[in-house]
Amino acid sequence: KEVAEYKHGLIDKPRYYALNKIDLVDKDEIDKIVAALQAESKHIFTISAMQGDGCKDLVKFLGKALNRKTI
User: Fold this and answer.
1) Does the model's pTM come out above 0.85?
2) Among 19, 56, 57, CA closest to 38
């Protein structure tokens, strides 16, 4: 609701999720969160910045998206 009220059209833009600190959360819990977010976006990244897990995939995706100007 808050996003929709902020600026017209913002709610219609693609959403990208990066879930950090996955090294601190049980895998089943992460899977539940990802499943819930899949209704809103197909671009969901699970990362551990501290361990570097998933970071390369996220950076690669963002680089391509910026080149296509889809962000």
Assistant:
1) no
2) 19
